[in-house]
Write a structure and sequence with these properties.
Oligomer: single chain
Order of helices and strands: EEEEEHEHEEEE
CATH architecture: 2-Layer Sandwich
Number of strands: 10
Strand content: 25-35%
Distance between the termini: 21 Å
Structural class: alpha+beta
Largest sheet: 5 strands, mixed
Number of domains: 1
CATH class: Alpha Beta
Number of helices: 2
């Protein structure tokens, strides 16, 4: 089956129809949120950088933030034929990429991103079928809209299918 591979940038999202694939690179502390409605064949992938936008006065790119990006992605998927009740998710990323000398400094953005994404999906009643979260290495992911599989390539390791 012939398909297009659609690239999703950092602080970006795209949707695709079966049989196309969505791919993003550079997931360190960032999270890749892959959502699919298998009945309609509509899939989406967002690459978020930060958990929420609340402390920012001026927002240039809403897709940087989990609390804004996920609803935007879901809305576009529904506008293109997906049904929110049929959506299922897979997530990857959220690595702890930086060590701080002061242990009181809680800058683990990866862990905060993970908690935010999980909370938003739970609030929207979108189950997370699988995840590849945490660690200290970057990842590249490819989302297959035919099978719903998420191919996770971790730096220095092989490909894991979740």
């Amino acid at each position: 089956m012939e398909y297009k591979e659609i690239k999703v940038g950092i602080a970006d999202y795209k949707i695709a129809k079966c049989p196309d694939r969505l791919m993003t690179i550079g997931l360190g502390s960032c999270i890749g949120i892959a959502i699919i409605d298998k009945k309609s064949g509509i899939g989406g992938l967002a690459h978020i950088m930060l958990p929420d936008s609340e402390k920012f006065n001026k927002i240039v790119n809403e897709i940087k933030f989990a609390n804004l990006a996920i609803p935007i992605l879901i809305k576009e998927m529904v506008e293109n034929g997906a049904k929110e009740k049929d959506l299922r998710a897979k997530i990857a990323g959220g690595a702890s990429m930086f060590n701080f000398a002061d242990s009181k400094v809680n800058m683990d953005i990866g862990a905060r991103n993970s908690l935010a994404v999980k909370g938003i999906l739970k609030a929207r009643k979108i189950p997370i079928d699988s995840e590849e979260i945490g660690g200290t290495k970057g990842r590249t992911i490819t989302f297959d809209t035919v099978t719903g599989e998420l191919y996770v390539k971790t730096v220095g390791e092989g490909i894991k299918i979740i």
